[in-house]
Amino acid sequence: MHEHDTRSHHTSAIDDIVRQITWQSQKQLLQTLSRPEINLTLPQMVTLFAIREAGVCRMSELAEITQQSAGTLTGIVDRLIDEHLVGRVRDVEDRRVVQVMLTRQGEQRLALVEAARRADMDRILARFSLEQLRDLEHLLQLLLDGINELISDRDLARTANGQTNPSSLSRSA
């Protein structure tokens, strides 16, 4: 097999593995979120993490960051407010503007999600030696760097064509 063919074969195999990891990780995450002490949907979790990352933000900013429609996001945020995980606050400079922020209960719920994810990851990676963990971390970082570079290149092309660049908003939040 020529180097190009061998590389193509490995690229295809890695793409398949990444797809399977993505699918299985999402199923596992949904199981974690459905635990009684966590009890969140995936969109609620994404919204909570986005709010925590942004600190205090307008709903329009949150919609851009989470890539959700304003209507969908309003429903999600209203449910999070009902559960006392998110609060509304008035903008200091413009009292007409309503912003959202995490409450103490929201922070605590996210801490539960993070602790559960860490425990799950410890269990998943238990069969790896310390050296394998270091190697895997390094290789995954290289993969992530490549993904981020591809996204950045595409965002630059969109910006050059006058289109909105939502992924850069989520990285800056």
TrEMBL record:
Domain of life: Bacteria
Keyword entries, A-Z: DNA-binding, Transcription, Transcription regulation
Pfam families assigned: MarR (PF01047)
Residues of the HTH marR-type domain: 7-145
GO MF terms, alphabetically ordered: DNA binding; DNA-binding transcription factor activity
Cross-referenced SMART domains: HTH_MARR
Protein name: MarR family transcriptional regulator
